[in-house]
C-alpha cells in the first residue's frame, strides 16, 4: 500500500512539474509564432486610397509625333494618294530647319482605389512638353521656335503580386486618351474629287503596359516602375500618400 501511494504521489508530482515547465515553453512558442506571423505574413495595406506624383521618361511616341506627325499634304491621283510636295523640292531644300527636340519627360498625378488586397483601379493624368528651335537655311541663324504639349488621361488596372505593409510589388495596364496641343504636324489636308479636306489628328487613343513596379513605405511611400507605351518607355518614379 505504501509503495502504491508513493508511486501515485510521484506521478502527480511529475505531472505538476512537467506542466510548470511546459507553460513557459508554450508562452515562448506562442510569442515566437506571433513574431514570425508579424514578420512574414503579408499584412496588406488597410488604406483604400492613395494619391501619387510621378515623373516618367521621355514619351518617345509623342516626341516622334511632334517632329514628324502627319504633316504632309496629299492628293488623290487615280487610286493612289500622292505627296503633293514632290514638285516643290527647291523650296523644301531652302526652307527653315529645326534643331533637336527637347523635353523634360512626362509629369503627372494619379489616384488609386484598392478594390481588394490584390487589385486596384487607378486614374492617371500627365502632361509632357516639347520644344525646338527653328533656323534659317540661308545663314543658320535662329528665326523662331516651336513648342507643343501632350495631355494624357489614362485609367489603369493594377494587380498586386505581393502586398506587404512596407513593400508591395505590382503590374498595371491601362488604355486612355491623349490630346496633342501645338502639334502642327498633326494637321494636314487631303484633296479628292470633293475638294480639299482638312484633318486634325490631335486627339488619339493611348495605352501603357507596366509589368513590374515596386512601392516601399507605409502611408508615405515611394515607387518606381518600368514599362512601355504611349506615356513612357523606360521608367517612371514618384512619391505618394495612402489614406
Number of H/I helices: 3
Q: Sketch the topology as an H/E string, one letter per element.
A: HEHEEHEEEEEEEEEE
User: Could you tell me the number of beta strands?
Assistant: 13
Q: Report the structural category.
A: alpha+beta
Task: Indicate the CATH class of the largest domain.
Answer: Mainly Beta
What would you report as the Rg, rounded to the nearest angstrom?
A: 33 Å
The 3D shape can be described as elongated
Could you explain the architecture of this structure?
This protein is of the alpha+beta class and 243 residues long. It folds into two domains: 1-41; 44-242, Porin, CATH 2.40.160. The protein is 21% helix and 54% strand. The chain has three helices and 13 strands; from the N terminus they run αβαββαββββββββββ. It has helices at residues 2-40, 60-67, 89-93, and strands at residues 49-56, 74-77, 80-83, 97-98, 102-114, 119-135, 142-163, 167-181, 187-192, 195-200, 203-217, 220-229, 234-242. Strands 1-5-6-7-8-11-12-13 form an eight-stranded antiparallel β-barrel. A hairpin with a 2-residue loop joins strand 9 (187-192) and strand 10 (195-200). The longest helix is centred in the first third of the chain and has 39 residues, at 2-40. The radius of gyration is 33 Å and the shape is elongated. It starts with a helix and ends with a strand. The model is unreliable at 21-27 and 70-87 (pLDDT under 50).
Q: Summarize this, please?
A:
The protein is an alpha+beta fold and 243 residues long. The chain contains 3 helices and 13 strands.
Amino acid at each position: 500500500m505504501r509503495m502504491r501511494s508513493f508511486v501515485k504521489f510521484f506521478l502527480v508530482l511529475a505531472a505538476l512539474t512537467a506542466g510548470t515547465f511546459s507553460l513557459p515553453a508554450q508562452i515562448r512558442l506562442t510569442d515566437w509564432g506571433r513574431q514570425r506571423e508579424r514578420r512574414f505574413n503579408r499584412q496588406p495595406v488597410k488604406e483604400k486610397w492613395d494619391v501619387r506624383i510621378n515623373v516618367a521618361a521621355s514619351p518617345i511616341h509623342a516626341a516622334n509625333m511632334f517632329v514628324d506627325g502627319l504633316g504632309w499634304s496629299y492628293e488623290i491621283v487615280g487610286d493612289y494618294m500622292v505627296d503633293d510636295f514632290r514638285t516643290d523640292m527647291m523650296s523644301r531644300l531652302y526652307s527653315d530647319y529645326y534643331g533637336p527636340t527637347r523635353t523634360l519627360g512626362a509629369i503627372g498625378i494619379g489616384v488609386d482605389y484598392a478594390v481588394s488586397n490584390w487589385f486596384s483601379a487607378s486614374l492617371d493624368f500627365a502632361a509632357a512638353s516639347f520644344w525646338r528651335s527653328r533656323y534659317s537655311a540661308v545663314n543658320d541663324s535662329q528665326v523662331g521656335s516651336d513648342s507643343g504639349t501632350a495631355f494624357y488621361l489614362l485609367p489603369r488596372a493594377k494587380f498586386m503580386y505581393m502586398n506587404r505593409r512596407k513593400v508591395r510589388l505590382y503590374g498595371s495596364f491601362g488604355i486612355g486618351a491623349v490630346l496633342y496641343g501645338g502639334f502642327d504636324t498633326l494637321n494636314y489636308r487631303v484633296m479628292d474629287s470633293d475638294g480639299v479636306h482638312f484633318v486634325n489628328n490631335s486627339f488619339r487613343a493611348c495605352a501603357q503596359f507596366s509589368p513590374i513596379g515596386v512601392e516601399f513605405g507605409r502611408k508615405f511611400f515611394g515607387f518606381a516602375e518600368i514599362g512601355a507605351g504611349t506615356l513612357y518607355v523606360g521608367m517612371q518614379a514618384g512619391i505618394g500618400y495612402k489614406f
